[in-house]
């Protein structure tokens, strides 16, 4: 087994132009694992803190001061690397060293191990003998915290080619709907600038329902039946709208407010009307009971927790106990280390909670999450749609079609 011979880090920028850290781990003096940490804009209250005191430089300093503790460890020994990080950070949210550091160190280590063993990363992370491709879930229209004033309050309208039999077709279909939506938006508003949100989805000046109607139209223009071969999803990211003092969801841009009950009706109407295959954070991050109501009401939709479950296995257990979701987002940097995230995945899979491995809105051009999606038996991979940092993950899935351990698409 290859041993870590060097570990170094540096400050770089993510796709939003914000500072982040990158870590290089070399095993046996030649096998490089290199990982640059992403970061979110609509961050869950209970997710891992990205950097010590909010400063990438402080997390990097901790790495430099403690690099000797990692030298000589086996790069494939995720548990020991995780424990070494946890000895440096006694908090329960990685505020002592920064979750971004835990993210980058653990993934860089296994990537280095995968090179040393000449095996793809997904097969290093799982003992399964065969794997299935997750369906790409692409953001075709952005609003909320990911786009400017005038765009919808809801954060993301997503596309999933759920009828596709191959990953090539699923990716091509998502991209064709994104292209068609541009034409639909230009027809609707000749002054549409083709502006895009943080994840590559179009960012037009439209109210929530109009944005959904036009997205559905783009699907139908291409000859698909909405909700059959190709479906829409929505990330409501409702914690952005939730006002704890007023106990209301404030839809600033559309100009209305929802009580908790009205929010359930608002989300239900959208799920029904647009035949959503996927509905994420339809209520705020602490509304476990309201999520249970939606989960009971829509068994055929992936009622998904993101800010609700924050890739935290204790919080997921709470959601499982109260039947608050039938699907959950897996974002490694919400958990901190890859070891934490894999524990979360195990609990989800044991309890029939469908996993969606996801990027962050501030990303790097790395593509390890495509492998993490495969290894965790994720049903979907949420990686945006266009832009170098988004396409990198889709292109990695296409490269992986050359691998004979992977056959067919996941069962949704
Ligand atoms: P974030 O958004 O990366 O900005 O948190 C993504 C999401 O909410 O799913
Ligand atoms: Zn989300």
Care to describe what's here?
Helix 5 crosses helix 6 (208-221), helix 7 (260-273) runs parallel beside helix 8 and helix 12 packs across helix 13. The chain is built from 13 helices and 16 strands. With 412 residues, it is an alpha/beta fold. The chain starts with a strand and ends with a strand. The protein has two domains: 4-118, Enolase-like, N-terminal domain (Enolase-like, domain 1); 131-409, Alpha-Beta Barrel (TIM Barrel). The mean pLDDT is 97. The structure holds 2-phosphoglycolic acid and zinc ion. 2-phosphoglycolic acid is lined by residues 40-43, 235, 237, 306, 358, 360-361.
Question: Could you give the topology of this structure?
Answer:
Layout: E1 4-13, E2 19-27, E3 31-36, H1 56-66, H2 78-88, H3 99-116, H4 121-124, E4 131-133, E5 135-142, E6 156-160, H5 167-188, H6 208-221, E7 231-235, E8 242-243, E9 248-251, E10 256-258, H7 260-273, E11 278-280, H8 288-297, E12 302-305, H9 313-321, E13 327-330, H10 332-335, H11 338-350, E14 354-358, H12 368-375, E15 380-382, H13 388-400, E16 406-409
Parallel strand pairs: 4-16, 5-15, 7-11, 11-12, 12-13, 13-14, 14-15
Antiparallel strand pairs: 1-2, 2-3, 5-6, 6-7, 8-9, 9-10
The structure holds 2-phosphoglycolic acid (PGA) and zinc ion.
2-phosphoglycolic acid is lined by residues 40-43, 235, 237, 306, 358, 360-361.
């Amino acid at each position: 087994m290859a041993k870590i011979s060097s570990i170094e880090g540096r400050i770089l920028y993510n796709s939003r132009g914000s500072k982040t850290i990158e870590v290089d781990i070399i095993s046996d003096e030649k096998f490089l694992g290199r990982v640059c940490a992403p970061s979110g804009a609509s961050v869950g209250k209970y997710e891992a803190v990205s950097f010590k005191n909010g400063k990438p430089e402080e997390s990097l300093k901790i790495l430099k001061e403690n690099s000797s503790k990692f030298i000589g460890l086996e790069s494939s020994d995720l548990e020991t690397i995780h424990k070494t990080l946890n000895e440096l950070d006694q908090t329960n949210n990685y505020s002592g060293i920064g979750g971004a550091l835990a993210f980058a160190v653990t993934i860089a280590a296994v990537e280095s191990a995968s090179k040393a063993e000449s095996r793809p990363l997904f097969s290093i992370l799982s003992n399964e003998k065969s794997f299935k491709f997750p369906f790409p879930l692409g953001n075709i229209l952005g609003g909320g915290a990911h786009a400017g004033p005038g765009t919808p309050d809801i954060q993301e309208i997503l596309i999933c080619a759920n009828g596709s039999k191959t990953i090539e077709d699923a990716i091509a279909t998502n991209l064709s709907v994104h292209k068609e939506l541009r034409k639909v938006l230009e027809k609707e508003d000749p002054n549409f600038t083709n502006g895009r949100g943080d994840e590559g989805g179009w960012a037009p000046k439209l109210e929530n329902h109009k944005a959904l109607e036009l997205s559905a139209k783009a699907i139908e223009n291409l000859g698909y039946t909405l909700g059959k071969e190709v479906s829409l999803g929505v990330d409501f990211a409702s914690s952005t709208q939730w006002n704890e003092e007023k106990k209301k969801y404030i839809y600033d841009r559309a100009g209305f407010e929802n009580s908790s009950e009205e929010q359930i009706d608002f989300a239900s109407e959208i799920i029904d009307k647009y035949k959503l295959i996927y509905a994420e954070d339809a209520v705020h991050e602490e509304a476990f009971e309201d999520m249970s109501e939606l989960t009971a009401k829509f068994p055929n939709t992936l009622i998904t927790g993101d800010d609700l479950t924050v890739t935290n296995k204790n919080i997921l257990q709470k959601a499982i106990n109260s039947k608050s979701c039938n699907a959950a987002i897996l974002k490694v940097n919400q958990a901190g280390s890859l070891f934490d995230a894999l524990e979360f995945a195990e609990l989800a899979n044991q309890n029939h909670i469908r996993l969606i491995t996801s990027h962050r809105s501030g990303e790097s051009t790395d593509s390890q999450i495509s492998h993490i999606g495969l290894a965790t038996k994720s049903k979907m991979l949420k990686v945006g749609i266009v832009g170098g940092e988004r396409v990198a993950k889709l292109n990695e899935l296409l490269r992986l079609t050359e691998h004979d351990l992977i056959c067919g698409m996941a069962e949704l």
